[in-house]
């Protein structure tokens, strides 16, 4: 009965935020205008519905990818942005823009995913070769690695006058989402669903190679599948709407404090909180300087930084 009540509360909160996301914007849309004004109905279908769908998919996928990499690395302070995945995806996108400027969105996504896969695999190899004396070592190594890739990307983008494109990939902004310009996110949703199905294997792989082999798993194969899933989802999100900061870091940590480390059991709540936080931050960004939009990369960045600092101070201040 308690689980049913919690599920109803979570569903109600997500439904309220989704309706608010559909109705809030520079152009006021209400039930009356939808029934009487053809222009309002057109805006609703072309802009509001795709934007809300993109927010839910990107928020859910980003949060679940954070939970998966935290299990694979066995460290709560990593996510795709603190292990170089996002920087490598942006680097691949930039190379694709330079050498294949007429590539279709699907081609750009594949280039970004391939680059993200190579970078993430390199980071995993780095973790296995460097002695880790502190839980902060993996994210610090990842940030340093991502910083090197990011510096190379910025230098190349500056030389070829592509800094504006680079900024769009690194700062999420859903105001650009329109019908027929966000459908790549459905691929991210499908790949995220695959990660959900394999959650138990990622949990076992996170217990260590010896434990995984003892339970009949090939840890390197599970790691390769996990990297492929994370790289594919990250590439699709970066190409479509840009990276949402801190979401994959704070959401799995908040849920883990409540429901523990079992990935299978915590993933529904991780998905719900990821979608809810993304909707909430985007709605706030639309209201704070109405009728102008504040990118979710800014609002989520501020909120995520505050939550992350609070978690660090609580962990190391004991």
Break the fold down into its secondary structure elements and pairings.
Blueprint: H1 2-23, H2 31-36, H3 38-73, H4 85-99, H5 105-129, H6 137-159, H7 163-170, H8 184-197, H9 199-205, H10 209-214, H11 219-240, H12 247-259, H13 263-288, H14 296-316
Helix pairs in contact: 1-3, 1-13, 3-8, 3-11, 3-12, 3-13, 4-5, 4-6, 4-7, 4-11, 5-11, 8-11, 12-13, 13-14
Please give a structural write-up.
With about 325 residues, the chain is mainly alpha-helical. About 75% of the residues lie in helices and about 0% in strands. It has 14 helices and no strands. α3 (about 40-75) runs antiparallel to α11 and α3 (about 40-75) packs across α13.
Please describe the biggest sheet, giving its number of strands, its sense, and whether it closes into a barrel: none
Distance between the termini: 36 Å
Helix and strand pattern: HHHHHHHHHHHHHH
Q: Report the uncertain regions.
A: none
Give the number of DSSP strands: 0
Mean pLDDT equals 86
Portion in helices = over 70%
What sort of overall outline do the alpha carbons produce when their principal axes are compared?
globular
Structural class label: mainly alpha
- The total of helices stands at 14
Strand content: under 5%
How would you briefly describe this protein structure?
This protein is mainly α and 318 residues long.
């Amino acid at each position: 009965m308690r689980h049913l009540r919690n599920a109803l509360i979570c569903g109600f909160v997500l439904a309220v935020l989704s309706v608010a996301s559909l109705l809030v914007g520079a152009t006021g849309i209400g039930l009356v205008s939808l029934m009487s004004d053809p222009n309002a109905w057109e805006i609703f279908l072309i802009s509001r519905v795709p934007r809300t769908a993109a927010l839910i998919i990107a928020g859910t996928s980003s949060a679940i990818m954070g939970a998966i990499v935290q299990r694979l690395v066995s460290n709560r302070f990593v996510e795709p942005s603190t292990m170089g995945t996002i920087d490598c995806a942006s680097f691949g996108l930039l190379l694709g823009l330079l050498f294949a400027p007429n590539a279709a969105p699907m081609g750009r996504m594949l280039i970004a995913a391939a680059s993200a896969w190579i970078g993430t695999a390199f980071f995993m190899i780095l973790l296995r070769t460097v002695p880790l004396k502190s839980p902060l070592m993996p994210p610090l190594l990842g940030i340093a690695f991502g910083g090197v890739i990011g510096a190379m990307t910025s230098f190349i983008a500056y030389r070829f006058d592509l800094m504006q494109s680079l900024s769009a990939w690194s700062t999420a902004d859903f105001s650009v989402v329109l019908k027929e310009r966000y459908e790549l996110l459905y691929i991210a949703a499908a790949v995220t669903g695959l990660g959900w199905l394999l959650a138990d294997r990622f949990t076992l792989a996170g217990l260590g190679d010896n434990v995984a082999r003892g339970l009949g798993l090939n840890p390197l194969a599970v790691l390769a599948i996990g990297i492929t899933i994370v790289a594919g989802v990250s590439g699709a999100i970066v190409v479509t709407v840009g990276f949402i900061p801190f979401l994959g870091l704070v959401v799995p940590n908040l849920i883990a404090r409540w429901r523990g480390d079992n990935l299978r059991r915590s993933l529904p709540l991780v998905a719900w909180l990821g979608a809810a936080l993304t909707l909430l931050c985007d709605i706030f960004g639309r209201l704070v300087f109405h009728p102008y939009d504040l990118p979710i990369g800014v609002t989520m960045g501020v909120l995520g930084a505050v939550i992350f600092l609070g978690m660090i101070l609580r962990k190391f201040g004991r």
